[in-house]
Design goal:
This protein has helices at about 1-5, 55-60, 75-80, 100-105, 150-165, 195-200, 210-220, 235, 260-270, and strands at about 15, 30-35, 65-70, 85-90, 135-140, 165-170, 185-190, 205-210, 225-230, 245. The protein folds into 2 domains: about 1-95; about 135-270, Glycogen Phosphorylase B (Rossmann fold, 3-Layer(aba) Sandwich). About 25% of the residues are buried. The protein has a 6-stranded parallel sheet, sandwiched between helices. It has a two-stranded parallel ribbon with strand order 1-2. A two-stranded parallel ribbon has the order 3-4. By secondary structure, it is α/β, with parallel strands linked by helices.
Length: about 270
């Protein structure tokens, strides 16, 4: 979106998606944020939908749209019916093995993209969640059970880290509903992403599976250890100032040893600088 701003410096930019995500963006990147799940926008996503007068009024004056949607989505056509003359669309997932960040930036071949541009950075507001100086955050879930290191392994890792003097915080969201932990362990459960980003920025280390939260941690500047199994790190690896990847043997996270993961954590934690 920063690259888009460079190409359209005088245009207003509105995010149509999850309004909460706009809170993670640099100040001034979005002029407004509209919640896509609102019933007002339901007709945009349906075929042969009745595009209401309210929608026509809302989109009056818009000249362009950048869409991350499948070719079969009705969104492009409905926006054209609303009078938007310039629509740029990209599939959410690359068809070839290319890092997801580079894939999205390939939309802008006409501008210079630096290595710094290729490393996401979030706006992090500290203070919403208390974070001790020696905190390690663990995220045991993802959107796919096959991408998860077994929960028993995460719990063993937590106990070992505590024995080394670190405070463990568990990150639990909708994908981790039903995950039970002993009462003594502290959790950040269903925390708004902007608050979670601020907390992660203050953590000593983040350890988690291939998930959006791993990308959030890396972009917040938290040293990140990402565990990969079936998914391809060549596409989905997070980027940040300090990121390490561990790829499970035979692409099966059940084969990733507790000892190796713990050793990687200690090696990361004992570095003086990142």
């Amino acid at each position: 979106m920063t690259a888009w701003r460079r190409l359209h410096p005088r245009d207003g930019v509105v995010l149509l998606g999850k309004a909460e995500h706009a809170l993670l963006a640099p100040q001034g990147l979005f002029d407004e944020a509209w919640e896509a799940s609102s019933s007002v926008f339901t007709p945009l996503f349906g075929r042969d939908a009745d595009v209401s007068a309210a929608l026509t009024t809302r989109f009056r004056g818009f000249r362009s749209a950048l869409l991350f949607s499948s070719p079969t989505s009705a969104l492009s056509g409905n926006l054209m019916r609303l009078g938007l003359p310039d629509i740029v669309r990209q599939d959410p997932f690359p068809a070839e093995q290319v890092p997801i960040i580079d894939y999205h930036l390939s939309l802008f071949p006409g501008i210079t993209i630096t290595e710094e541009d290729r490393r996401p950075r979030l706006r992090c507001t500290a203070g919403a969640l208390p974070v001790a100086a020696n905190t390690v955050a663990l995220h045991p879930g993802s959107g796919n059970e096959k991408k998860n290191w077994p929960m028993a392994n995460f719990q063993d890792l937590a106990r070992r880290l505590e024995e080394e003097g670190y405070l463990v915080r568990w990150i639990l969201g909708p994908a981790e509903e039903g995950v039970g932990l002993p009462d003594r362990w502290l959790t950040w459960r269903n925390v708004p992403l902007s608050d979670l980003a601020g907390a992660l920025a203050a953590c000593k280390l983040f350890v988690g599976n291939d998930s959006g939260i791993a990308h959030l941690a890396a972009a917040a500047g938290c040293p990140t250890l990402a565990l990969f199994g079936v998914s391809d790190p060549g596409v989905w690896a997070p980027r940040g100032r300090a990121v390490r990847l561990v790829k499970a043997p035979r692409a099966d996270l059940r084969t990733l040893s507790r000892e190796l993961t713990f050793s990687e954590c200690l090696g990361f934690l004992r570095l003086e600088t990142f």
